[in-house]
Here is the input.
Amino acid sequence: MSRQPGTGAVDECARPAEPAPGTDERPARVVVGRVKDSPLRVVGAALSGLVVVVAVGLVVLLAVLPKATGGAALTVLSGSMQPTLRPGDVAVVRGVGIGDVCDKVEVGDIVTYLPEPDDPSLITHRVVAKTVGTFDDGTACRLVTQGDANTSADRPVSPTQVRGVFWYGLPKLGSVKQQVLDHPTAALVVVAVVTAAWWLVPPRRRVITVSVPGPDGQDPAAGGLR
Here is the structure.
């Protein structure tokens, strides 16, 4: 087997010296196959890559995109919007300005709003009706909302109460989101450790060697060719 100078790389075929002039002998040769990682390491590398992709995807879906649109990722706590949103799901909403609510929010949209202007809790329900007019708070409409699983409508909602419009939902990720937000450093450390564990472990490899017999039928590997 020959090596490329300064690289340690192995040639695909080790080519021996040319036969002596006037002879019919053909030298034996050894064909060396490519070096292969062990199946366990290949699976480990694939899993670590998957962990990284999933982790990055969750960060984008739960933090980057909501923040970029002025919205938020909210954990669903009740069953009032079933089957669209179930307890434990994550509802991602896009921010909407007070002046845009009457123009951009339509019947059928799902909105997140404060039940009262000074109440910090949030409700996410579907708009079932919309009233346009002039109101005491200077806004031009009122939204009538109702949970998909509820039998009665909520009190009319002013644009000043609206905090966002539903964008997309992530089933059963509420607990994951809460853990990541509560312990972001620990989450990053776990991802880093899982990834490093596979890439830093010394590889176990095997070389597949195929010997081509010489003209006398002798296996060249037995003669010391490696």
Summary: The chain has a mean pLDDT of 77. Residues 39-68 form the longest helix (30 residues). The beta strands are 13-14, 29-37, 72-75, 90-94, 110-113, 123-132, 141-146, 162-170, 205-212. The CA atoms of residues 63 and 95 lie 13 Å apart.
